[in-house]
């Protein structure tokens, strides 16, 4: 009889002890990051029960299987509560695939290089902001690849949302109501330009006091086209962003209050500014950060989630819900270790959210699941991201000298109203806008990231 030393219970006990002692670091059999620096692979830091879904479930689930209501009991502990409910009661299906073992497929190459180059150089100043040890603004990559607490883990999400110095996402969104019908369909463009925290190690145009410019503008349908918002983020995470919006009906730009971050951007959509990257608000406008657990999870990560070549516009097949159109087909893999981080909106006296919970993959410090709770403590929303290296057997999208990495789609589900907004990062959307990660291709600042740009985009 073969007795496994590192079985599921061993890993569970190990994670419980880590959490209780407030220990940082990724890995069970050893520290993960030295292994990544040596070979680029993470899997040797974990026992087989955390690298193989077949071993983890004792043969009940294996790559190639599809999770449905009939077998979800075997992986329910690996899903956030909303995803588990969707499979059990709403007809959602999840495809199981082998995990990606090469860390370079879990983030942009430039971001990984910056993380390794700047490792150990991040410090928190007396005001709780991240700087280099020499006092300069953070110069790229994850500041805390081995976070010791919830604040450090959340800074890894906050300082560079999309992990690119510039990201432009052409987004196609479908909003499904509680009866399963399509109620709205939007095209919009989302732009992010980091001024600091950049993988190239530079400060953009010497704007050391800012973190990023971020805009979103709608291009379809006609009655919403021109609606746009501009967020100007301060580097100091105690300060609220300057939020400006252009509403075509009023034909002017106005400044919005901070609590506008918890409201739909346009009618019918469940996407809020606060939802972005599970870190849509400045870190210190939330508080009581706490790592409440560590666990394996199922995450939508691998290249099967990129549909370039299989669909001309990178769109995805759908299924489930009352009318068979509520969910995208998703391909999940076993993530060996996730941090479970809770926080409360201490800077928003009227926020409808009472708490958020984020599950963060320790290998790339990117979230794989995100739930918000209302003031009563009931689950309100789920914001589920799907990531992919943009390379498959049909096509490859290049980001410099390497295949591009980004999010591919999102399920934004309002549990209490049973409304789903599902959206993809498309190749192009109405207006001829495309997805890309190159700020030098055009003057993106003046074209998309100023108040004047909001007025111009709204008027066209």
TrEMBL record:
Classification via InterPro entries: DUF1329, TAT_signal
PROSITE patterns hit by this protein: TAT (PS51318)
Protein name as it appears in the record: DUF1329 domain-containing protein
Species in which this protein is naturally found: Spongiibacter nanhainus
Lineage: Bacteria, Pseudomonadati, Pseudomonadota, Gammaproteobacteria, Cellvibrionales
């Amino acid at each position: 009889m073969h007795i496994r030393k590192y079985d599921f219970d061993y890993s569970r006990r190990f994670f419980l002890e880590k959490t209780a002692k407030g220990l940082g670091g990724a890995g069970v059999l050893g520290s993960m990051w030295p292994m990544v620096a040596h070979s680029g692979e993470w899997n040797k830091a974990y026992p087989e029960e955390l690298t193989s879904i077949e071993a983890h479930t004792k043969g009940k689930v294996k790559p190639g299987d599809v999770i449905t209501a009939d077998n979800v009991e075997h992986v329910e502990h690996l899903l956030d509560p909303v995803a588990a409910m969707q499979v059990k009661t709403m007809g959602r299906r999840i495809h199981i695939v082998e995990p990606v073992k090469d860390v370079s497929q879990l983030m942009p190459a430039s971001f990984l290089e910056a993380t390794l180059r700047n490792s150990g150089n991040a410090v928190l100043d007396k005001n709780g902001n991240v700087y280099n040890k020499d006092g300069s603004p953070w110069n790229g990559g994850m500041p805390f690849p081995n976070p010791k607490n919830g604040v450090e883990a959340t800074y890894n999400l906050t300082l560079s949302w999309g992990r690119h110095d510039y990201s432009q996402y052409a987004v196609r969104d479908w909003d499904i109501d509680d009866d399963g019908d399509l109620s709205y369909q939007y095209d919009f463009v989302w732009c992010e330009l980091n001024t600091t925290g950049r993988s190239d190690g530079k400060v953009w145009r010497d704007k050391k006091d800012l973190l990023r410019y971020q805009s979103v503008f709608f291009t379809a349908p006609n009655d919403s086209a021109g609606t746009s918002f501009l967020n100007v983020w301060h580097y100091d995470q105690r300060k609220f962003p300057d939020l400006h919006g252009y509403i075509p009906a009023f034909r002017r730009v106005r400044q919005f209050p901070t609590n506008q971050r918890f409201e739909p951007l346009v009618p019918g959509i469940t996407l809020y500014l606060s939802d972005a990257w599970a870190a849509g608000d400045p870190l210190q406008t939330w508080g009581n950060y706490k790592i409440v657990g560590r666990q394996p999870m199922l995450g939508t990560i691998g290249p099967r989630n990129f549909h370039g070549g299989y669909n001309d516009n990178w769109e995805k097949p759908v299924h489930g819900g009352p009318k068979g159109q509520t969910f995208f087909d998703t391909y999940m893999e076993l993530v060996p270790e996730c941090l479970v981080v809770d926080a409360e909106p201490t800077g928003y006296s009227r926020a409808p959210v009472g708490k958020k919970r984020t599950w963060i993959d320790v290998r790339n410090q990117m979230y794989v699941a995100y739930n918000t709770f209302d003031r009563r403590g009931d689950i309100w929303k789920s914001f589920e991201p799907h990531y992919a290296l943009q390379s498959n057997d049909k096509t490859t999208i290049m980001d410099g000298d390497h295949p591009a990495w980004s999010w591919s789609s999102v399920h934004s589900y309002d549990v209490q109203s049973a409304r789903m907004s599902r959206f993809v990062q498309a190749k192009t959307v109405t207006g001829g806008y495309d997805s890309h990660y190159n700020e030098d291709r055009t003057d993106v600042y003046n074209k998309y990231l100023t108040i004047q740009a909001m007025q111009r985009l709204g008027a066209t």
